[in-house]
Amino acid sequence: MLRQHNKLFGLVQRTLDVALIVLLFLAASIFWGLEWSSAHLLLTLFCGVAFFLFFASVFGLYRSWRVNSLWPEFQVLAYTLASTVLGLLLLAYATKTSESFSRLAIFTWWASLPLALILLRAVVRGVLKHYREKGYNTRSIAIVGTGRSAQELTMAVLENEWMGLKIAGYYDNRQTMRKLIEEAPDIPIKGSFADLIEGARNKSFDEVYVALPTDAQDAISGIVSELADCTIPVHIVPDVFTFKLLTARSSSIGHIPIVSVYEMPMDDLGVILKRILDVVASLCILAVIAIPMLLIAIAIKLSSPGPVLFKQRRYGLRGEEIEVWKFRSMTVMEDGADVPQATRNDPRITRLGA
Q1: What is the reported pTM?
Q2: Which of 56, 68, 60 is nearest to 16 (CA)?
Q3: Does residue 170 share a domain with residue 154?
Q4: Which of 2, 67, 93, 321 sits at 20 to 30 Å (Cα–Cα) from 347?
């Protein structure tokens, strides 16, 4: 249900953004006395919208900003707009069509977009804040731990009702630490870490906040690992500010810093844009490396008997087994459970592989 709501809100936000972009484009064209229905202007508008949606997906503009202030969202919006303008400029230069457009109209359009999109987001946030304070558009969260970090997180959630976060309960394996938090005596302790994992898989809550101390790193790692296969956002409340995760995104709830380990998967449009990027980038790379790959294949064939390519098992997303194609650099094509690594002067290595 949460993912469906996120997809719907993302679609609404995209629709509002596109509508605003189109309206400002029409307004700029009319203001400067241009025929807005001309082919050049419509093509510019289409490319502008396409670039904006593409870069918005790349920079994560349509992710959830529920617990963030306006400033981080504005920064991502600025990156998106700057990339859109750069993309349009490069396209106009590459196609030698820059002389076909009114610079005044285009500049007016570009200059008005940042302020208009910022105001739109401020209005949307105001509306959402109003409804969340009334109990609508809320998310149920599970807090892991009942110690100091959990207590501070609880207070931050209770003091910032506009975020729309509702605490479903606490989970903690440490029997000595299981105690009701004084500031929220009505919030129950639901059980152990195993109960948390089961609840996440059963969608008993929408998000997980891990608020354990630094001396519980093994427990934190175990919980994060167990929740990797669940399509549920997982955030860590660092006990110290030196806590780092390379793939994580930082934000805060009130004055409490949090690190988002897993967030909502990409929505359908994001998946489509990602697929387009993958295909286009792959074709461009193949065009560059095709001839070197052909030369390598010929060299392998001439230097030793056997096939040019062979398949080998590897592990990809979520530990799933995949097959990859590799250039053969050995006289053998081992792919068993125990494949000895190559060593210096290994007799299995071909002349080209050496």
Answers
A1: 0.56
A2: 56
A3: yes
A4: 321
